[in-house]
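Complex record, two chains
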Amino acid sequence: MNFYFTYFFIAVGLFGFSALFALFGVYAERKVSAFIQDRLGPTETGKFGTLQTFADILKMLQKELIIPAAADKLLFIMAPAIIFIAVYLGFAALPWGPGLVPTKLNLGLYYIFAIISIETLGILMAGWGSNNKYSILGAMRSAAQIISYEIPAGFALVSVVMIAQTLNLQDIAAQQGILSPEKVKFAGFWDVSSTGGIFAWNIFRAPHLLIAFIIYFIASLAESNRAPFDIPEAESELVAGFHTEYTGLRFALVFLAEYSMMFLVSMVGVILFLGAWNTPLPNIGSVQLANWTTGAAWGVLWIAVKTLTLVGIQMWIRWTLPRFRVDQLMALCWKVLTPLAFACMLISGIWRIGLM
Amino acid sequence: MSLVQILFYVMSFIALGSALFVAATKNLVRSIFMFFVTLFALAGLYVLALADFVAITQIVIYVGGILVLILFAFMLSGKETLNIIAQQRSKFISINKVAAFLLAGLFLLILLNTFFKVDADHLAWITGSVRFNNVITPTAAMTENIGVNLMTKYLLPFEAISILLMVALIGAAHLSRKGEKQ
């Protein structure tokens, strides 16, 4: 029975974490945008405006849940739940540290890739259910964008999997540090199995994986509908895109899903390319920095720091770059990223056979 | 009943119930969303059959790809067209549906025939495989097995399918191209 208790505890814990992260994320986003635009951001509520998002969520909880008269009620009500659950289910397979993983799936990466694609369905459901032309245009743009960018993202991930030879995220994580069961080579020639640190990370394992990481990062921005790929909710054109008609708690759920998605895609990127829960500090001679900073607690710290850094870069990009036009967006995906991702996959195959 | 059996019955019930709804409802968009439930329940049944790779592939291809594309086609066609389809009245049994009924009946006959004739618990090839230890355990990694088999034993069908898909892609690209200027 203890067994099931642990399961529930972890599931609730992950939910709590994603809710907390969304609260923190919204606050951080406001402060970052304020900094970039030379403003102050929230300052009044709490010290430095720290309670602003709590105030926002309290306001949202009190708001009336409005269902438009012409909406398809069932689809309208279910859509935010499906959007959030799709993202939340993805968290089940993500490792947090050595030995710390909610479910040790041997198909972990593939599972996450599959479960995220359900989000598209939720977005289309919201767009159709709202019975509003802005919503439906936003939903269609979003779906077109997500299914297009899944292809370069998928192939960038496959090029890592071909080097790592496993889909188990925990095994992929373990390969990138001093706990690796096999030999790790920096750029294919320097054996760093006992040095560890930043040199053992996947982006340095082969030069083309750096390009694969950039492709994945760009595609992950598009998959979480973030600027410069936020045409699904382009405020200047579509009001708010697929969530135009949502109010109160349902709107909050859509936002929760967006921030969880940001965290999820960043964490997948960190696990596959940036050494997962491994320390960035290498062993230098008798100064065994890597040995000292490896462990379950350190693992959680490192992966959180790395993931939050990536999330920070996502925010930075959002407030720096203007929005893409639809045709530019598709041209970037199909004419630049997809061929590059295919090339990375090809090089991975040759690399694995020839150099490892 | 063990937990696995309970899960099997629950998921079969969901799959059958949602499939019935898909076939019976007049609201086409809702029937597509219900089809998603059917596919998900089927994926669950695959997991119970230790075919986890097939289950996830089912979700990637059918839910992430095909269902979304079907919805796309619906959303491009507009609500009025869908309403006309929804208002069409048809009797359950009519002369137009003879072929469908015949096909469904024959399939049912074949299924029932196999069900009653085959002794599912003592199939010769299964007992043979068990004797030679040629079985997959619940903890085994399926992906390598599938990959090796696709590239060796089933290479010809694999390549044939890839050519078929290539033909479909070229055809689609040709159809969607703008007509030449005159």
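Note: Chain B is about 75% helix and 0% strand.
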